[in-house]
Amino acid sequence: MAKIFYEQDGNLGLLKGKTVAIIGYGSQGHAHALNLRDSGVSVIVGLYPGSKSWAKAESAGLRVMTTAEAAKAADVMMILVSDHLQADLYESDIKPGLTAGKTLMFAHGFSIHFKTIAPPPDVDVSMIAPKAPGHRVRELYTEGVGVPALVAVHQNPSGKALEQALAYALALGCLKAGVIETTFREETESDLFGEQAVLCGGASELIRAGFETLVDAGYAPEIAYFECLHELKLIVDLIYEGGLSYMRYSVSDTAEYGDYTRGPRVVNEQTRAEMKKILAEIQSGEFARNWIAENKSGRKNFLHMREMAQNQKVEQVGAELRKMMPFLKKKKEVGIPAAL
After folding, report:
1. One of 108, 135, 230, 304 is an active-site residue; which one?
2. For residue range 80-108, what is the model confidence (pLDDT) as tens digits?
3. 8 A C-beta contact, residue 57 and residue 47
4. pTM of the model
């Protein structure tokens, strides 16, 4: 069993007198900066000149400077920009200010595990990875609770990398919920697999396949949308609250019987074999190499796939049906035609 840390394991005093630079002010960045600031930590935000987030961070009362200036001024740096931007940003702006005795932190292990960033041996390298979107990290902090997180140490020349990472987790609010010890390898590979095979790739294709199966069989697209996409949130919420057993307890016996007898025909041995291939591609670094090459070549394939996905029929139908649901939080309909 993995070791789990709680509030009694964190010592905020380890950050006293130190300056923490939050590099990036997006979903995670704003939550980290504000939570640490409200916990009494000295925080600065590092952004590129002209960033749209600059004024937003300043309006929140945070001190903002360029990433290069923040790297020089900080004792601890948490990199919270997108994976594909980290390596270039590190080389140009962070590395020159990363002197001996400082700490480099991440919320995801991609750049360290796949060696797109190679920190010098005289700095601590650690990870605190909240298991929730940034807005939720901030929301639960303000409510006096917190979200679970993962902690990992890659380099520990100070001998206190874990303790300082736990101090960071305490300031972020995560030790209230619990922080699970892991490694950069385990976090990175399991995270990528979950995204590709289940949470994003797997779920998206399952929804689309179900929708298209019903539509191709002559059922109304609107009905197919509700049955294969809209109601998924109801099921996911039940699973989130109490696991698969609670979901099965909450649905009808008919649905539960269909779950047991038909589910394994959809996710079958062929599916499981493909999942193992996907995991092997992650473990070997093949996926990382593909993603890095895609970004270096201008992202043409990625952007084409994004455009194609945004214009699928299930998205077009959904855009119209969501107009019937004023109770939904308003979201930007990205790349979806205004009318069917």
Report:
1. 108
2. 999 999 999 999 999 999 999 999 999 99
3. yes
4. 0.91
